[in-house]
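lol ok so funny story. i was supposed to be doing the assay writeup but got distracted and ended up predicting the structure for this chain instead. priorities right. anyway since i did it might as well share w the group, maybe its usefull for someone
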Amino acid sequence: MHTSNYWVGHFKANATQHRINWEQLPLISLKEIDRILPSLQAWQLGETSEGKQLIAAATRYASKTNDPAYLEAIKLFIKEEQKHDNNLGRYLDVLDLPRIKHNWGDSLFRFARHLNTSMEMWTLAVITVESTAQIFYQALRNATNCPLLKEICTDILIDEAYHITFQTERLDMIFANKSVFLKAWRGVAYKIFYYATILTVWAAHRKLFNAGGVDFTAYFKKMRYKYAKTIKSITHSSGFVQLA
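and the output, tada:
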């Protein structure tokens, strides 16, 4: 279990890493663009959040736990997510393709974020979405032969692996401090939220997943493994036996 100061150091160090060669031109066919464009545009839009609600929740949580470094870590985490938005947007710009401003999936998640004031639910949501993002970017990387897009995806995948660890450690801490009663229904609620979210992501991006060689069976198997590795392991390691 790492401290908040550790994560502040990690995010600052990672911000100095430059893994993308923007001097190279994108080499992508019209057929490949057709397969990936709607999902690429939608995911780029989803990465544009300023994180105001998350920062507000983190501010209250950091004050409550007397851990000001956690708030700094969250701000650096958001900045890293915005880097993903900038890189995806820059790729669209290079291709002279539009950045969209509205998407049903993004609107749904933004609405849910505005309703959420809990650090616990924010952390659960980030773990879930970033777990799907790992499969999304792996599929996007495999869906074309464009070296520039592959570098963008690889850079994001490196970041996302650390993001999930960062958030999983925090959810473990939050869950461990709950009473037995609160743990009992949360274990089930976590599972419902997780699977509802991943099915929504599949519905929105199944064309891209298929283009990257991930059919529904493979997608669901991967997400079930990620659930067991993160969320289910949190509830079990905290001394709680799940009801479902």
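Confidence is low (pLDDT under 50) at residues 238-244. The CA atoms of residues 74 and 106 lie 21 Å apart.
back to the writeup now i swear
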